Amino acid sequence: MESKWLMYVLFTLFLLEGLWCQGCWDEERTSLLQLKTFFIKSWHLRNWERGEQNSDCCQWEGVECNSATGRVITLNLNYSSYKELDRDWYPLHSLMEWENVYLNASLFLTFVELKSLHLAGYGMAGCIENEGFERLSKLRNLEILDLGYNMLNNSILSSLTELSSLKSLYLVGNKFEASNHADGFEKLFKLRNLEILDLNDNMLNNCILSSLSELPSLKSLYLAANKFEASDYADGFERLSKLRNLEILDLSYNMLNNSILSSLSELPSLKSLYLANNKFQASNHGNVEMVNVCATYTLLIGRAVVPTVLGLRENCSPPTQTFLQFYILSKKLGFLKLSKRLSNLEILNLQGNFFTNSILPYLSELLSLKYLNLADNNLQASNRVEADLEKLSRLDHLEVLDLGGVNFSYNILSSLASLPSLKLLFLKSGTIRMNPSTRDFHNLSKVEGIFLEYSVLPTNFFRDIGALTSLKRLSLFNCGLSDSLTSPGLCELTHLLELDVGSNYLGGALPSCLANLTSLKSLSLDSNNFSGDIALSPLNKLTSLYNLSISDNHFQIPISFRPFFNHSKLKHIYAKNNEFYVDTNTESLEPTFQLNTLVLSGYGDCGGIPNFLHSQHDLEHLDLSHLNLTGEFPIWLLENNTRLHTLLLANNSLSGPIGFPSHFDHMNLEVLDISKNFFEGHIQMEIKTSLPSLRNLNISRNSLTGSISPSIGDMKLYYLDLSRNSLIGSIPPSIGDMKLYYLDLSRNSLTGSIPPSIGDMKLYHLDLSHNNLSGGIPDELTMGCSSLSVLVLSNNNLQGHIFSEKFSLFQLEELQLDGNHFSGSIPKGLSNCSSLSSIDFSNNNLSGKIPSWMGNLSYLREIIMPNNGLEGPIPIDFCQLQSLEILDLSNNNISGSLPACFKPMEINHVHLSKNRLEGSLITQFCNSFSLITLDLSDNQLSGNIPDCINMLGELSYLILKNNNLIGEIPIQLCKLQKLSLIDLSQNHLSGYIPSCLNITTFDEASKVDPSTAQVVAQPPGGPISTDEPVYFTTKSVSYSYKGKLLTYMSGIDFSCNKLTGEIPNEIGHLNKIHVLNLSHNFLVGQIPTTFSNLEQIESLDLSYNNLSGKIPPQLVKLHYLSIFSVAYNNLSGKTPAWVKQFATFNKNCYQGNPLLCGEPMRSCSAASPPPLIQGGPTQGREDDGSIDMGVFYVSLAVSYIMVLMTIAAVLYINPYWRRAWFYYTEMCFISCYYFMVDHLPKQFH
């Protein structure tokens, strides 16, 4: 009877328990909703809501409850984006600096059964007063506390020591540091139950080791990325020998060496040891004479007693420091002790040290090893190293071996074959020489994973790889592989689960045999030259795929993705930079997959947004950029995918207003990029309530109108780009309420002043250029934005001094203030900007001298200050600017000469025109092998053009006009194969025109020799290669060429010099030039008929020379010619036919040539010369326009006779004229007679 009652009671309790466990406790739900307001940064907390549908807080993300009591036992409040969000999707994340926040620890006291609390990644600097972590001591069950990636320091340590139940404490990525005095770590001994302590990535040193040794229960200790050091004497690591239970120790990324190994060998329970990226090395321990000791000792190594003679000398008594020297030696022999004593060691990471092959024999003593990493050491390929590797055959349990960065022959494969348990082999960044064979691969038939990233492999690597019958994972990323995948060996790996051949040179269509790899779950073909239609590829049959990456190839991909509808396991697709098309199959089907990631940005005209996306509900990352998609903003995408936090729709043809329904609320979207579309209308501020989690917003390059609403300050953005729209009005002061790191409002029509509230933000990038802003730069900006790296205020109406004395922008890297009305001198505050790389003050009213401190800015790459009133010489301190790439000081009042020491090696563009520079054109730039532009025009330079100019192989634009240069045009110019523009006009050059000149366009030169084409760095503000203008006279007007237009421009201007000789026929073969000006010289000879080959010529000026002969009639083929002049020469014959372009040239183009005829000059029929006498030396020759002298003499005699006959006829007809003629003749004879009588000597009378 009693047993029945007992069963009844138990059954009743079971039912009550079931009732109790339905949902979480009300007070805990209330506390969670209070916590949500503090931890709002974690997007996964957005489903914490009130209401009946969401009442069970045990089902909320990040919450775990006790299944029996319903009490919360785990709270994961980590800012998930801190660790999980891919930085490719959120580029700002790595630059964020969290503002200091302070926690109220009492908020957690409601959770009485809490065991695990995770608070990582919030920028917490501590707790509010009297509400510190010591309050958590009431949580008797708390075992795990994660405070990683905050801004905590030693001040919280004393409060943590009250949490006696803690077993795991994570303090990674904070600001803890150690010192010789009390720092809080000495109190950690109270945590008697602590088993895991993570102090990675802090600023700790050896001073805390004695405190850590007082944690008797410690099993895992992480001290990586700190400031620990080692010495030959006591360094504190010997204290760790007290941690008899320690199983995991991480000392990676410190400054340790072999001297600590002896201490580490005293940790008998150690199973995992991480010593990566320190200063460890292996030496020849057999040479015990390295220490000068006159004694014999016995070293205890493990259980072995080894007598060792240390420098024993005859009749020598032990010196007083013998014991100390022996102690040092024992430290140097620490690796030998370590290999003997750590018999339980299973994981050993020695990556990134200085070990040589001599370490291998000692590793063979670690018989329990399962994981060994020797990557990036000094191991060398040799017969001995392969023999030493064979000694590792004793490691029967070794499963993972990493030998990355080592060059081996294929014999290594046979050496590793003796490792019976080997499953994963890493040979990253190495070189495998010799050709593989089937036998070589058979040696590794049991290996399941081979990773050869960044290695150098033979071209036939795939031939026999099929012998690796157990292979499941194969990575050949960036191994220089070429040809195709047609080799059958790869297709024989039927157990393969992961294959990565990305970033190689593989091409062609995918082989059909890839369909054999039916087990494949992850396939990466990124960055190759594969082609073909994906719809017809073997990928359609790989239905086990989970991850597919085919970006950066030449595939043709149907935008519907219909070929993959049967891939039910597919979660991630990366297919950017391929060609997408709209397939003709209109059959209505739904895919079986539910994607998490879809990246389809590429090129093609794809119509509307793909229909299959209507059936997707689990998307988190979606990129449909650059597909020319049409339609309106797809709100339905957000409604269907509530977990979506990245949506990229840039560079499409989407249109309409950007609006959200009033009821719409998407809690998780963080990144939205709809730039470069056709959206119009006002910026709807409903976006702040519809997308409350939005942090990154890019709506640039659209057609937005209206003003920026003051309520924009209510948004919680970190990144905002509204550039290249049609926004008007002023910038609202409320914009400073946001915590922006990136703000771009450039190229709108904004007016007013820059609001001082901008200084309240922690901006690193600010661009307000190309607006109508006025006023000055507010002091609040220059004082408050101390993290500002890029400041662009170009092309506004700003005025006053650039910066006041209140200046703290010491992190500036790029400063663009061009196109304003700034006055005064260059601010001295910039001298403290040690990272400054780019300055653009062009088109302002600056005055004064160029400050010498600019030469101390060692990172300076661009100095752009044309069109100001700067004066004085170029400072000699500029000689220190070895990284300088652009120097533009044109149109100032710079005087003096270039400093003799100024020889920048990396410079690309020099613009010093329109100044008062003087002196000879010396050879400063002869070693500037990257020089593209040299513009020294409109100065007072003298001397010859230096012969060393041929060393400037990249030179494209040489502008030296309007100086006082003398001498001949150097023949060395012919060696400049990339020359596009050359202007030597208005100088005093003489001699002949070199016939070997080679003029092309910058764009064409880049195509001819892409391997040596100049690549110029791209700063955040845009390309720098051809942004600075080059002035060149064409069509009788001086034009400014820059940007892409300049790359297509080419020409020659040698006008206004003293050149002589004939025009070389070879000039006519420069068929890419647009301008040729040889006017105002002393050139002779004929106009070359080869000029008809100048197909691109637009301006041809040969005026004011001594050219003769005929104008070649073939010039009418020059269809682009718009300016033509041969005036004031000695040309003769008929002008070119008055058709096409030549019908637009008036007689001013031909004047000064009296023997020319034809339109638009006088008619040739009115004074046409007699026909040429046939025969003689001229027979069979083409008329070259010269005068026939025989014809000339005959014409002269005939004309003379006709004149005489005309005079005789007149005198015969008119008696009066006859008498006057005879009278005049008589008087002339008499006058001549008396003149001779009066003046001749008497002997001639």
TrEMBL record:
Keywords: Cell membrane, Glycoprotein, Leucine-rich repeat, Membrane, Receptor, Repeat, Signal, Transmembrane, Transmembrane helix. It is found in: Cell membrane. It holds the Pfam family LRR_2. It is a single-pass type I membrane protein. Residues 27-66 form the Leucine-rich repeat-containing N-terminal plant-type domain. The keyword Hydrolase does not apply. It comes from the Eukaryota. The chain crosses the membrane at residues 1191-1213, 1220-1237. This is Leucine-rich repeat-containing N-terminal plant-type domain-containing protein. It comes from Rubroshorea leprosula.
